[in-house]
Design brief:
Layout: H1 2-23, H2 30-41, H3 48-51, H4 61-80, H5 84-107, H6 114-136
Helix pairs in contact: 1-5, 2-6, 4-5, 5-6
Length: about 150
């Protein structure tokens, strides 16, 4: 049940993010795709932008302000939740919102790093966010762990 709720949250967020990317007029050409694939592989390398001669995307202050306004009510709600599964879903939403901010920085504003660098930023941020969320759910709950069944 928790996984289905989580999927809905992730799919809804992904759809919103991708619609913004489409609206931003991103050119999904071979350079963008190559950059995206590179970004997936260098997601944990802090020197990736420098190594590939890409400018780091700058934060959009208006979007960052909106995201910060969203985080406070979610954190408050999370603290009030007693159900372990719903608390986990709320944590995923927090992680997803923070990740979207990094994804949007490539496409909002005046980032002009070119198609490869835009794709790398998008792939790097997106895969990092998804891996972080997957790590959150990588452990098997006790009630579903065959090793703990008697």
């Amino acid at each position: 049940m928790m996984i289905n709720k989580t999927r809905v949250v992730i799919l809804a967020g992904s759809a919103a993010c991708l619609s913004n990317v489409t609206n931003a007029g991103v050119n999904f050409n071979a350079d963008f795709i190559n950059g995206f694939e590179t970004g997936v592989f260098v997601r944990d390398d802090p020197k990736a932008f420098k190594d590939y001669s890409c400018e780091k995307p700058k934060s959009n202050s208006a979007l960052a302000s909106t995201v910060k306004q969203m985080q406070a009510p979610i954190a408050l709600m999370k603290n009030m939740i007693t159900d372990k599964e719903m608390k986990s879903v709320a944590t995923s939403v927090e992680m997803f919102i923070a990740g979207i901010l990094d994804l949007e920085n490539v496409f909002i504003g005046d980032y002009d790093g070119g198609d490869f660098c835009s794709g790398m930023g998008f792939g790097r941020s997106g895969s990092k966010m998804l891996v972080d969320i997957a790590k959150k759910f990588s452990s098997i709950p006790d009630e579903h762990n065959p090793a703990l069944r008697k």
